[in-house]
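Suppose a colleague, Dr. K., hands you the sequence of a protein chain of 110 amino acids and asks what its three-dimensional shape might be. Before reaching for any lab equipment, you can write down a predicted structure in token form. Begin with the sequence itself:
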Amino acid sequence: FCKFNELPLPSFLNNYFADVLCVPLLAHSSLLFIRMAKRNYLIKLTPTMIIFIFVYVAIVFEFILPEYSSKYTKDYVDILCYLIGTIFYVIVQSTKYASELPLSKPEPLP
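The predicted structure, expressed as tokens, is then:
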């Protein structure tokens, strides 16, 4: 939103906060898609699945894309940010609170 409207952001937010949020947002959107596709709203991502997302994002965005485009730069601090987001998401997913959230189920289609 801020970049789109050309509002200045502190450098930490502009450079690294998006990287911290990358894996949790990608993992949670994947989880929502899986839940809707399988119509099972109790499914949770395993830590292995979340770690796979972390490894995939780190390899693609920090090693592969910088080789093919100057738009992307290899930054090892980004990998640390992805790791922080991954640890946060694994902890949130494994808490008792996360397993007890009320899940609204859509009405079945006629």
